[in-house]
Amino acid sequence: MLSNYYTLLHIASALNELCAGKKITQVYSQQRNQLCVEIDNDSTFVISCEPAQNFFYVERKFSRAKKNTVNLFPAMIGKSLKEISCHASDRIVNIAIDDGCELFIDMFGARANAVLCARTDGGEARVVDAFLRKKESIGTTRPQFYKFLSGEDHSARYEETRFLDAMRSSGETTILSALKKTVPTLGTLLAKEALFRTELLPSVSMDIVTDRELKKLITTTGILLRTLTTFSDEVHPRVYYEDGTPVCLSLIPLRSFENYDVRPFDDLNEAIRRFVSESNRAVSLLKEKAGLVSRLENELKKSERILEKIKEEHDAHDRASDYELFGKLLMLHLTAIRKGAKEITLDDSITRSGEMKIILDPSLSPVRNAEHYFDKAKKARAANEEADQRLKYLLRHAALVRSLLAEVEEIQSKELLKQFTHAHAADLKEIIGMTEKASEPLPPFRIFTVDGGFQVLAGKSSENNDLLTMKYAKPNDLWFHCRGSSGSHVVLRAGTGHGEISKTAIQQAASIAAYYSKMKNASMVPVAMAEKKFVRKPRGAPAGTVTMEREKVIFAEPKLPRELR
């Protein structure tokens, strides 16, 4: 719902209040299909025209990369923003600039773009510059832009009679398709929500939907539209999660998502930023994890094919014993073998299994034929021994691959995946050729994983504590240390797990700090906690010595989580 019409409507309204009258200081791109418009050096519009993920929001203190960036839209630099508005019924945001130019942001999936227009003498908006597809865009004329005016005006388009006629004449087979066609601003998510609240299945055929059910749907949809277009406290952004992964962003509570975890936000910009960040992290994890799983599965299939072939050979009749028996029988009956014979039938006086037909080489003497079978027996026995060894190796190899696959499929965060590849670097290198370089080195500290998949680092010495606190820890990380006793500095790294840091994760980190202190044997230990930005090292202080502000004391039992690597 990042590029849903109503999300764009509310983000445009919020940005208009925040940025109208301010100057554009630079416009650039530092990521494929993403445009950045910096306002008065303190805020940046981030506009994504990525086909799979259109979005638009403002971020404070957004940093431009030092390289691999390109300046764009030079005509906009130094100009002031007059107004930011949303189209009356389409996913288009208009940014009016004080020189009469306008930047149109089209959030149309694969056709998303940002184009700069100037007004002609006839009042038409003609494209003078474009972010993407410049050749086909520059010189074209934009359709008339109708600005969103009010929720009443918006909802009036869908009064009951017109709504009912439009649904019946839509030509769509399912009620979901008909509703999306009749009210295109809803999109799939909100259309399904309207049907859920009306107790209608999205797949139900329009042929069997009654007028009574449609009228109930009209009422429900009208309530949704009035809520979404009224800028009140009822519209409150929230992100829904499934197994720690964000699945959708919504401006209103979704009854169809009541069984999902939800996190409310006070600010729509922050909700979009968090959703994009966590989605990208989840996509990156899934991509990396899927690649590793695919290579392990291919190796397992290869091993199983070879195993099956070796087992077939191994389970076949033991030819070495036959060859040796043939050689012995020939030696016992040398005088009975006619020179130049191609075969001979002899009575088996050794194993008492009756007559046996033995193939001979007519060019060899009887003795040489016997020796030939003894040689074949020796080679067959050696081959069997080699097959036994290879069979044992392949069985161990396949078991290891299965074990690695089972472990990697349980991984739910990039930090855990990094720990996995580091811990199994030698096995992965042997199995699928993954080099040490492909597995990033872990920080030089004790490493733990706590609730939510968050990474916790613990120092190993005074100097190591300094390195952790002053070099590795980031301002928003949580910092822990046993109060009133010496011990390890412990850092709970924000952003390494799913969603927000839970109370359980904080308690587990405090327990780690208590465990690695001189109060390890106490039943409960007071542990000081503060954000890293409030922890400082006084000039000239000994290694491992710091001061902190805004500390909070937590009582924790000294113990370690299971996921110690």
Summary of the model, kept short:
This protein has helices at residues 5-19, 134-137, 151-156, 160-168, 175-182, 187-197, 211-228, 268-315, 319-332, 366-409, 414-423, 425-432, 462-472, 503-515, and strands at 24-31, 34-39, 43-50, 53-60, 70-71, 81-86, 92-97, 102-106, 113-119, 125-130, 238-242, 245-250, 261-264, 343-348, 354-359, 446-450, 454-458, 478-482, 490-492, 525-531, 535-536, 547-548, 552-556. The protein is α+β, with helices and mostly antiparallel strands and 565 residues long. It folds into four domains: 5-137, ibrinogen binding protein from staphylococcus aureus fold (Roll); 151-235, Helicase, Ruva Protein, domain 3; 317-402, no CATH class; 446-556, no CATH class.
Question: Would you spell out the secondary-structure blueprint of this structure?
Answer:
Blueprint: H1 5-19, E1 24-31, E2 34-39, E3 43-50, E4 53-60, E5 70-71, E6 81-86, E7 92-97, E8 102-106, E9 113-119, E10 125-130, H2 134-137, H3 151-156, H4 160-168, H5 175-182, H6 187-197, H7 211-228, E11 238-242, E12 245-250, E13 261-264, H8 268-315, H9 319-332, E14 343-348, E15 354-359, H10 366-409, H11 414-423, H12 425-432, E16 446-450, E17 454-458, H13 462-472, E18 478-482, E19 490-492, H14 503-515, E20 525-531, E21 535-536, E22 547-548, E23 552-556
